[in-house]
């Protein structure tokens, strides 16, 4: 995969680069992305940490498990769509994103927003008991039983676990999320070159903070996670097609418009 090859990028050698032309600009680029991440991340890490032992009890788990398949899908689609809305806000403040055409912004969000939600999930994950913060409390995989897609749920939880193992800082998560979103290899881009320039600036920013944190070896591990993200998102799409076939009415009339727009 193209994304797997990391070229040390020197913007000074790129006559077309928009960003960053100096170390000060790189710091500024990183600061902007980190601020945007902070302002759109719903909960601060400390808040989530304080809540990490607030678990669903047996009756509450029972209640989720006795929902019908389409009821639980609709519920989760609404929660996912809320999360996606924050990712859209995050994207808008990545330097360079708003300079892309509307078509290209949508193309990047269509393929990348779910991936960023999954990256962000690691902040909402408690590795000590394999639970995720969902609907106000921490939930294990059993809570999602009535979705009838156990393989997807297991894969998503495994991914969160693996992300947590990297012990990323908030700044690293912010830059990595931006990099996941701004990807010139996505299909249906009008101006690939322009996306590529924004991508390089974000890559340069991530390299910069990893270097500053003395954690350059993380870059390789992060690119490995990108490949896993791809497969998770195609699994999500596959499940969504399966669901829409079985429950066309729910998928058509009860799913949030943004969810349909991005994934259908
Ligand atoms: C991700 C980080 C966001 C907040 C957030 C909201 C909704 C959560 C999501 C996080 C993680 C994944 C999640 C989702 C709701 C349902 C979904 C728990 C924590 C699970 C994996 C079910 C997916 C079902 C689809 C197949 C519809 O900032």
Describe this structure in words.
The protein is mainly α and 264 residues long. The chain contains 11 helices and 3 strands; from the N terminus they run αααααβββαααααα. It has helices at residues 23-39, 45-50, 58-65, 69-92, 102-121, 150-165, 170-181, 192-212, 218-246, 248-254, 257-263, and strands at 125-126, 131-134, 137-139. A 3-stranded antiparallel β-sheet has the order 1-2-3, covered by helices on one side. A hairpin with a 4-residue loop joins strand 1 (125-126) and strand 2. It is globular and about 55 Å long. Bound molecules: cholesterol. Cholesterol binds next to helix 4, helix 5, strand 2, helix 6 and helix 9. Cholesterol (CLR) binds next to helix 4, helix 5, strand 2, helix 6 and helix 9.
Taking all Cα atoms into account, the compactness measure Rg is 19 Å
The rough form would be described as: globular
Largest sheet at a glance? 3 strands, antiparallel
Q: Write the H/E string, N to C.
A: HHHHHEEEHHHHHH
Secondary-structure class: mainly alpha
Spell out which ligands are present. Answer: cholesterol
How much helicity do the residues have?
55-70%
Strand order of the largest sheet: 1-2-3
Q: Please state the average pLDDT score.
A: 91
Number of helices: 11
N- and C-termini, Cα separation: 25 Å
Question: In percent, how much strand structure appears in the residues?
Answer: under 5%
Poorly predicted runs are 1-8
Instruction: Tell me how many strands there are.
Output: 3
């Amino acid at each position: 995969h193209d994304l797997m090859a990391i070229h040390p990028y020197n913007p000074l050698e790129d006559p077309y680069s928009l960003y960053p032309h100096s170390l000060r600009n790189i710091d500024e680029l990183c600061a902007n992305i980190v601020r945007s991440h902070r302002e759109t991340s719903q909960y601060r890490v400390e808040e989530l940490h304080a809540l990490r032992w607030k678990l669903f009890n047996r009756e509450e788990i029972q209640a989720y498990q006795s929902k019908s398949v389409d009821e639980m899908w609709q519920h989760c689609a609404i929660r996912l769509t809320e999360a996606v809305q924050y990712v859209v806000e995050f994207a808008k403040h990545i330097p360079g994103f708003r300079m892309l055409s509307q078509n290209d912004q949508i193309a990047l969000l269509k393929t990348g927003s779910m991936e960023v939600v999954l990256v962000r999930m690691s902040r909402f994950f408690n590795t000590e008991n394999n639970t995720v913060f969902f609907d106000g409390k921490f939930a294990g995989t059993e809570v999602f039983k009535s979705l009838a897609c156990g393989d997807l749920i297991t894969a998503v939880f495994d991914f969160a676990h693996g992300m947590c193992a990297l012990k990323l800082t908030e700044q690293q998560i912010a830059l990595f999320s931006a990099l996941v979103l701004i990807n010139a290899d996505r299909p249906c881009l009008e101006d690939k070159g322009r996306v590529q320039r924004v991508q390089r600036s974000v890559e340069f920013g991530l390299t910069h903070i990893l270097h500053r944190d003395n954690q350059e070896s993380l870059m390789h591990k992060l690119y490995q996670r990108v490949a896993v993200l791809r497969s998770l998102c195609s699994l999500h799409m596959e499940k969504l097609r399966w669901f829409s076939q079985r429950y066309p009415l729910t998928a058509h009339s009860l799913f949030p418009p943004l969810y349909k727009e991005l994934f259908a």
